[in-house]
Amino acid sequence: MAVENGSIELAGIVKSYDGANRVVDGVNLKIPDRAYCCFLGPSGCGKTTILRMIAGHEDPTYGEILIGGKDVVGLAPVERRTAMMFQSYALFPHLNVRDNIAFALRVRGVGAQERRKAADAMIEKVRLTELADRLPAQLSGGQQQRVALARAAITGPKVLLLDEPLSALDEQLRVQMRQELSRMQRDLGITFIHVTHTQLEAIAIADIVVVMEKGKIKQAGPARDVYDQPQDRYVAEFLGGQNVLTGRIERIEGDSAIIVSQEMRDVVVPLGARRTASAGDVVDFAIRRDDVDLVRPEAGGGGERAKVPSRVRAIEYQGNFVKVILDKIGADELIAYVPDRVFYRDPFSVGDVVIAGWEKNKTRMLA
Is the pLDDT of residue 274 over 60? Predict the structure, then answer.
């Protein structure tokens, strides 16, 4: 069945294998045509099950899957024009690069000359022209991945689905292949749906990030928004880079809450969407680790800034920044990412007393 475009809509999708436990639980999501979308979450959260349902390898228990505005539940992958690239690559060891890429066309009955022409064009797109006659065992991991990607793309799908495509690669190659996937998605001009459990991978590559937990979508949106404006504790902690702290609202002043705890006094946090919050409520709020600065007690500090006395528990050099781990705020970690050039002007040592500070408008109240 032809589709008009590669837009995807998941409407009330539920998947249960035993009739009781829901692996996917009422998912609603719209993915625009030609978007690069990453599903992100821990093992068992339902992200791969969603990928398989979009692909046509499984059907939902309830709900609709629309591709190009048409419900495709019950249709085979070839009818819904999806293609899937598996984590293992699943290349045929006895076929060379060209024949591996052309295999799907061979199955569909495309003639040898036309198959070769299409395969060579795809080989050029993935920059493997000089390796066209090699066997998979003669290729690097990154080259094998490009062959698998080209084999999935040669059928002209409207949606390409990638299941943990970078997990088998080392860190340096993973970074290179992130760039390669982005380039390929732009060149092919089709929708990519990419499943990963790696936070940095998702926010580096995706137009849309979908964070999942226990079969439900916790937050979905542009990568920068999800990272910088998490809606709740789970998203903030899972994506990393955020301090999530808990305190009690002592009073409300205009559009801000004044929050206190045993370790904090008079920390000002904008209410944001929590307009119904009131004095006495216990709330969570987030502050990015790179928005926390550290000064010695004698330096003081002014303006509308939080000032939390603390002590240095550990120091980890991270290259372009230094991770400074401070005493906990209740049960929560307090961590500052200090630029290395700033840190080494007057370096702290473990055990030093410091004042952790941040600007009011850098905090975010969580749901």
Answer: yes
CA angle 37, 39, 40 (to 5 degrees): 130
Domains in the chain (CATH in brackets) are 8-228 (3.40.50.300), 241-365 (2.40.50.100)
- Comparing CA positions, the residue from 156, 163, 12, 3 lying closest to residue 72 is 3
State pTM to two decimals: 0.87
3-class DSSP state for residue 183? helix
In 3D space, the residue among 287, 290, 293 whose CA is nearest the CA of residue 269 turns out to be 287
Phi, psi angles (nearest 5°) of residue 309: -65, 140
Tell me the pLDDT tens digit for each residue of 12-51.
999 999 888 899 999 999 999 999 999 999 999 999 999 9
Residue 135 and residue 95 in contact, taking contact as beta carbons nearer than 8 Å? yes
Predicted pLDDT at 272: 85
Burial class (CB within 10 angstroms; exposed 0-12, middle 13-18, buried 19+) of 75: middle
Helix (H) or strand (E) holding 5: none
Q: How confident is the model at residue 4 (pLDDT cuts 50, 70, 90)?
A: low
Helix residue spans in 126-232 (DSSP H): 141-153, 171-188, 199-205, 223-228
Backbone φ and ψ of 53, nearest 5°: -70, -40
Q: Which residue in the block uniquely carries the two structure tokens 């088998």?
A: 168
| Amino acid at position 362, single letter | K
Predicted pLDDT at 1: 37
Do residues 290 and 343 make contact, with C-beta atoms less than 8 angstroms apart? no
What single string gives the DSSP state of each residue in 85-126? E-TT----TTS-HHHHHHHHHHHTT--HHHHHHHHHHHHHHT
